[in-house]
Predict the structure.
Amino acid sequence: MVITLPDGSERTFSAGVTGLAIATSIGKKLAQDALGVTVDGKLCDLDAPITRNAAISIVTFDSPAGKEIFWHSSSHLMAQAIEELFPGAKFGAGPAIEQGFYYDISYPERFKEEDLRSIEAKMLEISARDITITREEMPRLQAVDYFRNTRQDPYKVEILEETLKDVETVSVYHQDGFADLCSGPHLPATGKVKAVLLTNVSSSYWRGDSSRESMQRIYGISFPSDKLLKEHVNRMEEARRRDHRKLGSELGLFMLTPEVGSGLPIWLPKGAIVRNELETFLKAEQRKRGYVPVYTPHIGNIELYKRSGHYPYYSDSQFPPLTYKDETGREEQYLLKPMNCPHHHLIYSSSLRSYRDLPIRLSEFGTVYRHEQSGELNGLVRARGFTQDDSHIYCRPDQLVDEICNAIDLTRFVFNTLGFDDVETRLSLHDPANQAKYGGTAEVWEQAEKDVREAADRMGIKYFVGIGEASFYGPKIDFIVRDAIGRKWQLGTVQVDYVMPERFDLNYIGCDGQKHRPVVIHRAPFGSMERFIGVLIEHTAGNFPLWLAPVQAIVLPIAEDVHEYAQEVRQALFAAGIRTDIDLRSEKIGKKIREAELSKIPCMLVIGKNEQEAGEVSLRRHRKGDEGRIGVNDLIAKLREEIDQRS
RNA sequence: GCUGAUGUAGCUCAGUCGGUAGAGCACUUCCUUGGUAAGGAAGAGGUCAUCGGUUCAAAUCCGAUCAUCAGCUCCA
């Protein structure tokens, strides 16, 4: 039997050889590190016999597949520890996740912080026992009996009787007295897990259904060595330092206060500069690309949102309507604007449109208010009041794919300028099994999804498909980035809409003299200014590029005798439009530099007698250090160039 | 909204058994006039999230509310 290794070399083994045996034949170290094996691309247990010629690859902790096996087994290890410490605990789902694992547990007592520590200790103890983990294939009905009567775990029985009801044979993994229904693969033995950290306990609903019972979910992460765990803990601490909520108040960018209301961010002067720069940047770019600006009010008659269909779909997540009664008793209801689209549609239909006028691209930084659930609020990235860089493009069907491509291009331009290179793109399509969630006919959806796919393909975007992620009026392309602790946030979006033109009876006169329906594209490259800047803060750790920095330069005179010259330098930079502060305190230069560094000011201009005599400054860059002396005019030219290039 | 945790000076945090509030940094003033990440001294700063209860006495114990954090659910 011939086994092909990842480097292309071939080796002969007798039939039934295991991954472990192959690893051992290659090297001792590999055999030690081996967690699983892929056989012709399929991930398998290390002790599974290989019965035919195959290409195999030994999986270690270094690979994503290795981590998944490791963490999945760790969740079983945790379950076993909990079962030994807390008899009667019932187990729901316990998968590996991107950063570790969790297990959902039903147990009458609340797990406390101390419990997590004792579970960790028990896990390490079970690891030290180095129990062999074995797989058993079992007919499904036998498994039902086993989990109902032997294991007495109703959740596993439910999975067997519902999710797996059409499956003949299932697999069960055993380690000592503990057993779990699981498709695997798993580690060969518990001893591989050398370091474990249980991070928190929170609640979850059984099967993610808020009408079902609440379970306790314990999150953890584990590693094959203490060293790797320490590195992970350090990374987490670094992430906390980058948290935009922390940096936002340290750097004076924004604030949140219950005196205004939760989820309603206030932009402080420094944060307002960042936001304003971004808005100016996008406005200029949109002007080049044929967008025209509009402004619309912050509230609108509720009938508008009933007509658009937003109100019934989203009434839960809106602030309650304002009711106004005039002296005749006539009542009107207004809604705090939850989205900008209906207003823009009215602008479109305010005059007769010819096919020659299209596409029409209406744009607005529109502030909207949504009553997000309290538990969902999160600094700037999830707020109740936020501003969308919203635009609606009205075009003819034959222009649609081009216009989607243009919108994708603009979004990519924005992301590239701001240095977001790790962006995932999701093609968000509707869920055919849940038709009630959507407006519009099946034909319209089919066309819309075909169009976005075509545009995405033409733009060469690497995307993944998200079924059920579409909005109620159409499919979309979403640009998703991660925050400092790895959580994903949707920023930019491009959405196709055949539904609103119907609801608002939008039309244009075609070359045949007849009325036709335009198509609408909703798009927002930043998405929400708040969320975008929140993620940008974490992405840059508050070290904004020069063009965005709230304070671009600070003049640091060494002693009082050069204060006058220092003021002149500051004025010169100011006159060139460079945001420049000056530190005139009677502190030593070391302290002034330290504080400027901590404030993350990109350029420090150190000035003493030497600089004054030569008409120069000493330029020190944030996190880079002294760059030497430069004439004031040269400095201004250099900084202006960097700012204008947005480099 | 749900489950759990947390809330003390502008910030980071101490505060024992219930006995009336503490540090460092920041801030203000004074001294110091300096060369690339913390010069010195003094001063000021708190209705211990809010409201209610227990108690001779509450930052501390109990309850409610608000807010924040983690996760779940949701996301136009």
